[in-house]
Amino acid sequence: MSPVPPEENPFRLEHDLEGKRVVMYSGTLGPSNPVTTLLAAAEQFEDDARLLFLFVGGGTGMAEVKGRNRPNVRCLPYEPLARMRYSLSAGDVQVVSLGDEMAGIVHPCKVYGAMAVSKPVLFFGPKPSHISDLLDSHEFGIHVAHGDELRPAPGGIFHHGQAARAGADGAHDDLVAVFPGPIGALVERGGRLAGEPRRQAGAEGQGH
After folding, report:
1. Measuring CA to CA, which residue among 139, 133, 120, 116 is closest to residue 193?
2. Label partner for 98 (CA 20 to 30 A): which of 36, 37, 48, 126?
3. What SS3 state is found at 102?
4. Residue 14: phi, psi to the nearest 5?
5. CB-CB contact of 131 with 145 (8 Å)
6. Contact 62, 55 (CB under 8 A)
């Protein structure tokens, strides 16, 4: 998976996202990934016509999103896997959420998709957790505890995008180091971004 420039992204055109700063949650919404604090932020920044909170996916938590009925909140169904690079790249910021009691039990793998397309991450959840550790190590986003007010506006983290892809490379190397032997070989072989060659020493921008 690799980033798609906005001017070449059919998803942004199809869904009239030009001129918008898109804060996107992509995936399944459920008890393990609450978005109540994110929805409160949407209400907080409702007067900013440029800012759109876009939820792409499904799950039981979508009922709460649709129930808010805010003008700057939009919902779309799941995207086919073949189009994920377009939908993820259409978000200027990608949201990752983890319930406070879920650290060590659930790992939101959507963080790696966001990193692969060089998008900054807005993480709602506990600290410490694996996601907060990634943010601390690679500085590609910000952490907000559930129930806290989001300050400043989400647009303030756009500059973290370049660090996200570098963090994806580092996370891949960490996984290979943690799982030696046959499991590590599987991670090395299957963990690379789709369609990309095996990373060579000194190469930049390749690998997972």
Report:
1. 116
2. 48
3. coil
4. -60, -35
5. no
6. yes
Residue 5: is its pLDDT beyond 70? Answer: yes
Apex CA 143: angle with CA 37 and CA 58, to 5°?
A: 50
Say if CB 38 and CB 53 are below 8 A apart.
yes
Beta bridge partners of 55: 25, 75
| Four-residue CA torsion sign, 44, 59, 131, 113 | negative
Residue-level pLDDT at 178: 40
CA nearest neighbour of 111 among 100, 102, 124? 124
The values of phi and psi at residue 5, to 5°, are -60, 145
pLDDT per residue as tens digits for the range 163-206:
554 555 554 454 434 444 444 443 344 444 333 444 443 333 33
CB 88 within 8 A of CB 119: yes
- The whole-angstrom separation of Cα 133 and Cα 111 is 12
DSSP 180: -
Lowest mean pLDDT among 71-80, 152-161, 167-176: 167-176
Determine if the peptide bond prior to 10 is cis (ω within 30°).
no
- Cβ neighbour number for residue 9 with a 10 Å cutoff: 17
Task: Give one DSSP letter per residue of 140-202, joined into a string.
Answer: -EEEE-TT----S-GGGGGGGHHHHHHHHHHHHHHHHHHS-HHHHHHHHHHSSPTTPPPP-TT
CA distance 183 to 181: 6
Q: What is the pTM of this model?
A: 0.77
